[in-house]
Please model this.
Amino acid sequence: MRSREDDALAQAAVDALTVQLALAPKPGLPDPRDLAARAGRRDHDSLRWSAKALAPGLTAMAAAARRTGEPTPQLRIELGAIGRCTEHSVGLAGGGHRGALWTLGLLVAGAALDPGARAREVTAAAKRIAAHPDRRAPRRPSRGSSISAKFGAAGARGEARAGFPHVRRALDALTAARTAGATEDEARLDALLTVMSTLQDTELLYATGPIGLRHVQAGARAVLEAGGTATDPGRDALHSLDADLHARAWSPRGSAGLLAGALFLDALAVTVGARGRVAVHS
Model:
């Protein structure tokens, strides 16, 4: 049985994804200022609409974790089953968000296991869940796992089993940018670029190979080394990278999903009341 706490965690995750979608310019990613689809890709409005379809599945994941109380193999199996059903629902609503669902689902479950946990404790709980195999998952390899094996990249599974290091780096980048006086959007874009600068994005590896991946990583580093998006040189470098990636039709979707995970943890303020009621605020 789900609770208001489960609903609140799921809504916080969907809100984080929606905030990520609203950022602009995100190099190579859908731009809310462009209402037409680019080069046949899903447009921003479609992605924003389909993001709402994640909420029931994320609520069910939170409820499963709260009910189980431990990061057990059975919980991992249950989360996998819920995730596959949610992918189907999201597909009916327009598609997208597969990487974000994996990241947010594990983090929501980690948060539900320990309602008083801080961000890094949540990623540690998610790591313990991800360490178990999903014994009921389809046996055919996914595109991501095939690319991971081919190029030796960690991929989404490796990222989770390592405790989401890029989510933690994004959180550190948010803090550093805010401390330096950046606006909230600038801090979030710097966090995205921090992820892009080192992530072995299997979507990019599939579309571009290692040379393209290194090109994207170098472009993200160039923005940060120019001072980040809060500076004139950094903004110029950001716009150049955005134009370049859109022209090449290269999309770092893996980085976008991990940024959504970081924004979820960043917004997670948990208050435990006298009766154990948990409220999540953004």
User: Anything to note?
Assistant: The radius of gyration is 18 Å. The chain is about 65% helix and 5% strand.
